[in-house]
Amino acid sequence: MSIWSIPNRFSVGLFAVFAALSAGVIAQPANENSASIGSLPQSSAVSKERSWKLITDRDGIQVYRAHTDDSPIKTFRGEADISLEDFRSLGTIMDDYDFVAEWMHMISEIKGVSRPSPFDRTVWLSTRLPWPVKDRDSILHVSLEQDPNTFALRMPFENVSAKGTEKEGYVRIPRMEGYLEFVPIEPGRIHLTIEVILDPGGYLPAWLANLILRDIPYFSLKRFRAVANTERYQGIDLGYYQIPPNWPGAQPVAISTSASNAPSAPNR
Question: Is the pLDDT score of 92 beyond 70?
Answer without folding.
Answer: yes
